[in-house]
Specification:
Blueprint lengths: L2 H8 L8 H10 L13 E7 L2 E8 L7 H13 L5 E8 L18 E5 L47 E8 L7 H14 L4 E5 L7 H4 L9 E2 L2 E2 L2 E3 L2 E5 H5 L10 H13 L6 E7 L6 H9 L4 E6 L3 H16 L4 E6 L4 E2 L6 E2 L6 H9 L3 E4 L4 H8 L4 H4 L4 H16 L13
Parallel strand pairs: 2-3, 5-11, 5-12, 6-10, 6-11, 12-13, 13-16
Antiparallel strand pairs: 1-2, 3-4, 7-8, 9-10, 14-15
């Protein structure tokens, strides 16, 4: 077993509840000895943590199969992260009294099956009047239904050692988002902030290469990662855990988001003013996870003047607006190119793209960056422009100064004085 495999076994993100897989199980399960699908019998589904409560309608003739249904569902759902299944079964009314365990004098009965040890019959839930046309059932104040509300950014607890989390995002790949992330982080550090970097691009991590620590792996203390150092900044990426640049991370969405949450929560981050998170392109699982489960102070959008990039960038802005995450500004990358031979300036990717987004969404244009070969060369060497002091240094520092002004306007959280670490 490789070092990475043994580490994955210890910090397995597979413990995450896989909601898409749960939905597939419930949609595809066929009731025993029939062609009836379970999904047609479900009247209520509630999920809280790793506990699933399921209410289904059955007929008296299916009473002997209830335990089989529960056991088969519990086995299938356990693979999706469900540790406890509470199956609430309502038998439909018939002309004759229902037979079997739990039958009532009115011909209806209600059964409950759970993954937990069985209790006495006297502890079963009260009988509910169910018929082909069910009437509204009054809520039981002693046994309220379990509801799962979508997490809101305002409800996410703040990290005890990180003042602000800033996302650097783009609607599409190839616009220079990761290069912008590392240079802005180094720029903010030069301006006096304590800055860290987290690479959230699980499938295509490039931060290790750009910061010159590719191939290094973090130490583990008390089941927590110790971030690596890069130019005085604490840094961590999934690329540091694979140990090389050749190992692909072929994970489905729930596993990738679980790994990201562990990189954020199970890392010994020092006291930081800002944690810069390099986002993957697009608006998928990882973006939603970050927006709902990590305390984000704001986002920076990186785009090029090209219309295709602008269309995708607006989708990212719309996502952050819906998730109540303020967009601090836009960075227009590859804005202009100056020929190294003749000095001719050419706007290869168009003109005014950053201005359009800025005006449309009333957010500041933090600055423009040139299309310069030195940026790429120094990033490939692990010496970003702010460190190498190349021709783009001043441009990055000017954007970092504008970003700092935006950060200073953000509300600050007071540190819990009762904490001892």
């Amino acid at each position: 077993m490789s070092w990475f495999s043994s580490l994955k076994a210890k910090f397995a993100p597979s413990q995450e509840v896989k909601e898409e897989e749960i939905q597939k199980v419930l949609q595809n399960y066929c009731l025993p000895n029939s062609e009836n699908l379970l999904k047609d019998r479900i009247s209520q589904v509630n999920l809280q943590g790793q506990i699933l409560q399921l209410t289904i309608n059955t007929h008296p003739s299916e009473a002997e199969q209830l335990q089989q249904i529960h056991d088969e569902l519990a086995d299938a759902l356990e693979k999706c992260g469900i540790q406890e299944l509470n199956l609430h079964v309502i038998q439909q009314k018939t002309g004759q009294a229902a037979s079997g365990c739990g039958s009532q004098q009115h011909g209806e009965s209600e059964h409950s099956c759970s993954s937990q040890p069985k209790t006495e019959a006297g502890n079963l839930p009260p009988v509910v009047d169910a018929s082909a046309k069910p009437e509204p059932v009054e809520a039981d104040p002693n046994n309220p239904p379990i509801q799962k509300a979508a997490p809101q950014q305002r409800d996410v607890p703040k990290h005890p050692r990180i003042q602000h989390v800033i996302l650097v995002s783009s609607g599409k790949g190839g616009v220079g988002k990761s290069t912008t992330t590392v240079n802005l982080a180094l720029g903010l550090q030069k301006l006096g902030l304590k800055v860290g970097v987290l690479d959230a691009d699980i499938y295509g991590p490039s931060i290790p290469t750009m910061l010159g620590n590719a191939g290094q792996t973090p130490l583990i203390e008390n089941e927590q990662f110790v971030p690596l150092d890069a130019y005085g900044m604490p840094v961590l990426s999934i690329g540091h855990l694979t140990g090389d640049n050749n190992t692909p991370v072929a994970w489905r969405g729930p596993k990738a988001t679980g790994a990201l949450m562990q990189l954020f929560n199970q890392t010994l981050w020092p006291e930081l003013d800002v944690l810069m998170i390099d986002m993957p392109p697009g608006t998928g699982d990882i973006q939603l996870t970050l927006a709902q489960r990590i305390p984000v102070s704001g986002a920076v959008i990186v785009t090029t003047p090209q219309n295709v990039a602008l269309l995708d960038a607006t989708k990212g802005i719309e996502l952050f607006n819906r998730m109540q995450i303020p967009v601090l500004g836009v960075v227009e990358n590859m804005s202009t190119h100056i020929c190294s031979n003749c000095g001719f300036e050419e706007r290869i990717f168009g003109v005014g793209g950053g201005d359009k987004i800025s005006e449309q969404y009333h957010i500041p244009l933090l600055g423009r960056l040139p299309l310069n070969a030195q940026i790429r060369e120094n990033a490939d060497k692990g010496e970003p422009s702010v460190v190498a002091m190349d021709d783009a240094h001043d441009s990055y520092m000017a954007i970092a100064e504008q970003l700092l002004k935006c950060i200073e306007k953000l509300p600050k959280t007071d540190k819990d004085q009762n904490r001892i670490f």
